[in-house]
Amino acid sequence: MIMPSKYLREDEALIGISAVLLPLVENNDNLTALWESAKRIDAIGSFERFILALDFLYLLGLVDLDNNKIVRVQG
Fold first, then answer.
1. What is the 3-state secondary structure (H, E, C) of the chain?
2. Are the C-beta atoms of residues 30 and 18 closer than 8 Å to each other?
3. pLDDT tens-digit profile of 46-75?
4. Could you tell me the pTM of the whole model?
């Protein structure tokens, strides 16, 4: 589910969803505002996939939580 494969398209894989979600994090929104922006994107689909993609970005060190706002890590 993380990487695309023969049976899983890139836009359905977690890495593809995370790539779509990452530019939305630039706005430094809280979780609710970020979800409101992201739920309109067909590739994200559901709140569960949104959270999994956000967790994946956090594990990669690309996003962090600062004062209840999700921020992109500059590195």
1. CCCCCCCCCCCCCHHHHHHHHHHHHHHCCCHHHHHHHHCCCCCCCCHHHHHHHHHHHHHCCCEEEECCEEEECCC
2. no
3. 999 999 999 999 999 999 999 999 999 986
4. 0.86
For residue 13 the two structure tokens come to: 């894989």
Closest alpha carbon to 30 in 74, 75, 63, 7: 63
Q: How far apart are CA 65 and CA 3, in angstroms?
A: 25
Q: Please, what is the average pLDDT of the chain? A: 88
**8 vs 70: CA distance, rounded Å:** 28
Other C-beta atoms closer than 10 Å to the C-beta of 51 total: 12
Q: What percent of the chain has pLDDT over 70?
A: 95
For the chain, first and last CA: distance in Å?
27
